[in-house]
Design brief:
By secondary structure, the chain is an alpha/beta fold. It is built from twelve helices and 14 strands.
């Protein structure tokens, strides 16, 4: 029986070494800076290639106020290249996990191109109803099932069951980037023009909702802890990912607290790449989790 392949899109937040250890492949997504397009690098090797952009390079380039970051889904050729790479490696079944359809055109492109390889592989494209760490936590759950000998026909329903169930909260330094891209629902009603506050956001069922606002970065971390604690009892067994955009120190603080408070069956800290940075800007920290056994 062939080993099925797992593919995630470039909005996912997953450390390079974890993706490699779990044999998880990436669909390339792009960031566009004033009409110049770059592929968001997902590894150190990619970051050194022409036409690719590492997170560090991305944040350097968006410092000027006249730079407007935008994003782009993978094109047909890029999708087919990922499928063909998996097929060449022996896979005859492929699970593809994408960002929520409301937040990107990625699912539509990926689903359409999957049909073009239906004669060579069974490809299931799943809208995770999430983004960033939500995608990654579903991917690692599917990878563990595969490692235990689970089949493609078991992996697909598992991923579909988990879609939309990953709890996700994030704190941003500003709503400006989300406002520009139209990714915040109800933002104007809740925050008006107070873009200097630190918004607290929840990702749920394919939408990004503002749920609170605080005045300082320290208070943002404290509020995230309160929101997690309100949903999950101390000591509970959880699978968790802490993510950030160019803010590793605060992410480490949140990560340490999470591991002190809970029994983290799975835990990792990841930098969300340029695609998430283009939408939410630098200074984001977030936590994604689900209870063991869910």
């Amino acid at each position: 029986m062939s080993r099925f392949a797992i593919v995630i899109d470039g909005t996912a937040a997953l450390p390079e070494e974890l993706a490699r250890a779990n044999d998880i492949r990436w669909l390339p997504l792009k960031v566009i800076l004033n009409d110049q397009a770059f592929v968001a690098a997902t590894s150190a090797a990619e970051a050194g290639k022409p036409g690719y952009l590492s997170p560090a390079e991305f944040y350097e380039r968006i410092v000027p106020k006249d730079v407007k970051p935008e994003t782009s889904a993978p094109n047909i050729e890029e999708c087919l290249a990922v499928y063909d790479g998996a097929i060449a490696a022996g896979a005859r079944e492929i699970v593809v996990l994408t960002i929520a359809t409301e937040l990107s055109a990625t699912y539509s492109v990926v689903a359409t191109t999957a049909q073009q390889r239906a004669d060579r592989a069974r490809i299931e494209v799943i809208d995770t109803r999430s983004l960033a760490g939500g995608i990654s936590l579903i991917a690692t759950a599917v990878a563990r099932l595969r490692e235990r000998g689970g089949s493609f026909d078991e992996a697909v329903p598992l991923a579909r069951k988990m879609a939309g169930t990953i709890q996700t909260y994030a704190a941003t330094d500003t709503l400006e980037y989300l406002r520009r891209s139209g990714r915040v629902s109800g933002g104007a009603a809740l925050f008006g023009t107070l873009l200097a506050v630190k918004p607290i956001l929840e990702v749920g069922n394919g939408a990004v909702h503002p749920v609170d606002k605080v005045r300082t970065r320290d208070k943002a971390v404290a509020r995230l802890k309160e929101l997690v604690a309100k949903k999950t009892a101390p000591g509970a067994k959880i699978h968790a990912c802490v993510l950030h955009t160019n803010d590793p120190e605060r992410a480490r603080q949140l990560s340490a607290w999470l591991q002190e408070q809970y029994h983290c069956v799975e835990h990792y800290l990841a930098e969300a790449g340029p695609v998430i940075g283009a939408r939410a800007g630098p200074g984001v920290i977030g936590v994604c989790w689900y209870p063991e056994g869910a």
